[in-house]
Amino acid sequence: MRRSTAIRWASGLVCAAVVLFSAALGARLAAAQGFGYVAIAISPSTLQAGAEHGTTTEDSVDKGALQICQQSSGANDCRIYSAVDSCMAFAKPPTPVANHYGCAAAATREAAAAQALADCTKAGGNNCAVTLAPCGNDDVRFQSPLPLPPGGKPGSVDPALVGLWGLNVSSGIWVWQISANGTYTFHSEAPDNTQTHAGTFTASNGKYTLHAISMQWDDQGTYTMQGSTAVMMSEKLGKGTWERITRDPVYGGPASGPTSAPAVRR
User: How far apart are alpha carbons 64 and 51 in whole angstroms?
Assistant: First the structure.
């Protein structure tokens, strides 16, 4: 397979390679200690996609991403794009239109997401959102987190809620990052297959609303601060006490990624 500095999609558009608190989780796997291969497989006709990451082999991440794409879309046109020592991102509009999407690789999750959003818009996508953002060094046990989405309304979030929060669940934690600009990102660091998502968030006077833009999910409920390090949330899924954390125990923080620009393989 040859390596290049750009990804070319079926639409003919070029996608440039600009290029969470729980001891129970134990030590990180080797995949979280150094970057490795990452792949995204996309069906241009359905916009369903699959992603795989880890330091196993180039072939294994390619096959894993392809299998997920084919199973989710039922399509036979899934195409594989991958990179090494980098992060990738896939963006699409909420109502899928063939070939209206974007994908990119970059040195950080945030940079890859920004470029994927730009490419999606260039391809004709409206209100594009990032739905996949894997990095080569993400823990292979869990789905990759998403970066905070752009936009939101500054001042729409109670300052007491801004930050990184963890909720103890079976064999791990859920991690929720809330930003002052009115956006959030959520991912699971437990073997429960809970889907990663991100979107907009508002909170004031003990009430909150949440709207996911990367999947179909809306929630609203109440919150009660317990000092500055814990908050009781009452939501669709029930009640739970989230505790403030300073760094993602598996992924090392809100952002992750290598420092050098990677090469992208077509």
Answer: 7
